[in-house]
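Quick start: load a record and inspect it. Here is G5 domain-containing protein:
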Amino acid sequence: MKARIILTSIVLILLLIIVWQYVAHATPPSIHSSKTKVADVVIKGLSEGEIKSKLLQKIEQWRNKAQIKVAYLDEEWILDPQLFRFNVENTVEELTEGTNNPLFVEYDKQLFYERVEELFSQLTLNEEEMNKIYEDIVDKVSRLETSYNVQIEEYLPVTLVQEPLAQVVLQVDADWSGYTQSIAIDNRSLFSVLDQFGEENDLHIIATGIYQLTLHTNFSIEERYIQNKQPSFTEAGYEAYVDKKRQHDFKFYNPNTVNYTIKIEENRGRMYFTLMGPPFIYDYEAVIKETEQIEPLTKVYNQEGLEDGVKMIEEGAVGIRVVIERQKRKGMFIETFARLKDYYPPISTIEWRGDGREDEENKKVTKDSNEESEPRDDLWGIEGEKMEK
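Running the structure step on this input writes:
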């Protein structure tokens, strides 16, 4: 009898242990409403294990699609999605009912800070600005947003430091004495010399100076013309001609999210063009890669009324063909991102003779249509730049 009581007690104890283990480890049914989500993932009707499994699946899909980009002006950094660490366990444990819960996620903050400082060394970001950028990225990732662009400019003070970035100097005549002008170059906008200076008469100097400034930027040249004959105040490849009557304009596009200013000022026969604004990530310059001089032909004609042996000569001009490459540099890095080609055709020398006879060697006078042309009124237009692929 005593043995039976002991056996019964043991059985009851074992049953209690089994029941307790079941209660402790059994997965309860989901108690979440349809409004409760995690990173837009609906978890209604799912057990805790199913929620975790579904979130891990969504995270993996996100890693395969995500593109998180940090950019300043024309420099950008795409963060590796694999470096974001998600804590699904803590996420599920800390769920708030009836809301769209973010995932618990981390990214190496020290690595992030060091990389930003390395890539955007021209900027001086304080701790508050850096933390704000970091926190916004983590917030977007915690909601599994697959595409997010961070523009650092948006985290900087409203008025960025305006410092001299480039300067161009051109010789001008007395008509420009005392001239001064300040021009705003708005962010992500097209600038037109005709729209800005349409009421002024001589825009050749203005357009050329502004064009030369753009060669020190990442601005894209959308429309440019040159004259038939190279002007005396600038080298071949560095001219921009504007003609209001013919609607020949000089236009460029500022792709940046910040504004710039061009200041123009005449002083003692020189026109100074200065670009003001926040510094670029790269250094920009224009390099002449090819130069070719094309000698003019000589055309000989008889001229009635001139004495025998008398000559009248109208000097021509040498033609020039140049190729300019626009480059950006940073340390040892150099990249050509556009090419410009200018051509000033040669102008034939004209010789008038009064002897009534032509030398046999000068009798045959031809015009090479590929290498020269007579002075013309029309202009040579360059519709934007040829971009390097």
